[in-house]
């Protein structure tokens, strides 16, 4: 019976089929590398070979040989450049990687010393760095962003004590004094570790993955990663096979529960009309007055569209 259909693959030898499959895989890995560097180009930040492999934007895991081959091919095609072991889009503007890393690590040491005092607050389960310092991309004008995880129903009480301690130490970031100051802008309680579903995207996936632990009690950091396993949908090379973990004992102190509610009421009243992009819930606080995620995602999508 005559037909107009053509079965191209049926005429190919097993070797040709394998070559075709290899070519498709190479293009997929090349695309992942280009998208990863496109995202970092929004920050003018190049990546080391190790960073590029681990932060690769891919749903499927990529083996080392395929990754190395794709990197080499993209350099030959003048799609990406490498200088001093750092990779970036061809002819893209980049910051001084080593200088930024040096500044960031200096801030990390400062944050560690401050955290030693903050860890005395009994309801704090975890303290970590976020933002430019966690990404090792800070400059001398950066502030020190922190994420705090507390015991259940102790977010607002913890925030009150933490701000008081930082203010006494002269380390609290304010509108008048922000350079190299502590900015605790994310507070989560241990019963609500998963990032809000409506806020999940490539930007927040990076923020979650790049959190740099400073203090950890009861394996809270591992619980945080497990609760946010959705980031593997962006980082296929991420190995995060975590064992089942339990939350620590829940607070049942009626008096402190009441104090927590009062602390939340007073702090939200003080904020009043100052709230803009901030999220202020009973078990999740995110202060992000200058939310740059929309701008970064727009630049990323624009760059991706040119690939």
Relevant terms:
alpha+beta, 44% helix, 307 residues, 2 domains, Arc Repressor Mutant, subunit A, 3-stranded antiparallel beta sheet, 10 helices, single chain, disordered N terminus, Beta Polymerase, domain 2
Q: Could you provide a short overview of the structure?
A:
The chain is α+β, with helices and mostly antiparallel strands and 307 residues long. 44% of the residues lie in helices and 14% in strands.
CATH topology of the largest domain: Beta Polymerase, domain 2
Termini distance?
Answer: 45 Å
- What is the CATH class designation of the largest domain? Alpha Beta
Helix content: 40-55%
Number of structural units classed as domains? 2
Question: Helix and strand string, N-terminal first?
Answer: HEHHEEHEHEHEHEHHEEH
Oligomer: single chain
Major sheet: size, sense and barrel closure?
Answer: 6 strands, mixed
Give average pLDDT, whole number: 84
Number of strands: 9
- Overall, the morphology is elongated
- Supply the CATH superfamily name of the largest domain: Beta Polymerase, domain 2
Q: What Rg do the Cα atoms give?
A: 23 Å
Number of helices: 10
Task: Give me the side-by-side strand order of the main sheet.
Answer: 7-4-5-6-9-8
Low-confidence stretches: 1-18
CATH architecture of the largest domain: 2-Layer Sandwich
Strand content: 5-15%
Q: What structural class is derived from the secondary structure elements?
A: alpha+beta
